[in-house]
Amino acid sequence: MDKRNDMIAGAVRAFDAGGFRGIGVDGILASSGASTRTLYKHFGSRDGLVLAVLEERHRDFMNRLKPRSGHADPIGELFDTLEHWLTEHGARGCMLLRARSEYAAANEDVVALVRRQKEEFEREVARRVETVLGFADGRLATQIWLLFEGATAAASVSDLSVVGAAKQAAGVLVAAAQSRSR
Questions:
Q1: Are the CB atoms for 107 and 113 separated by under 8 Å?
Q2: Residues 126, 122: Cα–Cα separation, whole Å
Q3: Which of 48, 54, 58, 127 has its CB 3.0 to 4.6 Å from that of 44, i.e. a possible disulfide?
Q4: For residue 170, which of 44, 78, 42, 64 has the smallest C-alpha distance?
């Protein structure tokens, strides 16, 4: 299992540096020291490794979104988590969306996985909106989701201050929704 995890960690670094399809198997495996045979043993194929990387990355992010005790702002907490994530991993845009873009015409499994992962995240945003408002508001959830995804992308060409701006905009939207419901 350690070799498998080492291969995933090395592949994350390789994909971040060279893209998903722009780097060969040797480049992907270089930092883990694994052989092509080991790649096929653990993942079945190069694309199997890509899927495992995306699954691990999404799982790690979703685990970080688990609400912390005492945080009074579930929506703001999304953006705080994003800022910490980008500080730790770098602001290069969403790895899931980069993979989806590169594999759009080449691998339906990658596209479908990213779609499911984004839908899971959208449900998390909607759950938080419902927690804050006391009722579901799909439009507000979509707006906050768009702010989050936009801040993730914008941070890659700007700086992390865009995350704070998105958090502030989300707060304005939430406050407006709360005042309409009174």
A1: no
A2: 6
A3: 48
A4: 78
Quickly state the pLDDT bin for 93 (edges 50, 70, 90).
very high
Buried b (16+ CB within 10 A) or exposed e, 102-122: bbeeebeebbebbeebbeebb
3: Cβ contacts below 8 Å, ≥ 6 apart: 32, 34, 38, 42
**Which secondary-structure segment (H or E) carries 31?**
none
pLDDT for the residue 161: 97
Distance CA 52, CA 129 (A): 30
Alpha carbons 63 and 56: distance in angstroms, whole number: 10
Q: Residues 32-67: pLDDT tens digits?
A: 889 999 999 999 999 999 999 999 999 999 999 987
Distance CA 122, CA 107 (A): 23
The residue written with tokens 């992962």 in the block is 117
What six digits make up the tokens of 8?
Answer: 């995933």
Buried b (16+ CB within 10 A) or exposed e, 63-85: eebeeeeeeeebbbbbbebbbeb
CA distance 170 to 144: 6
Count other C-beta atoms under 10 Å from residue 94's C-beta: 20
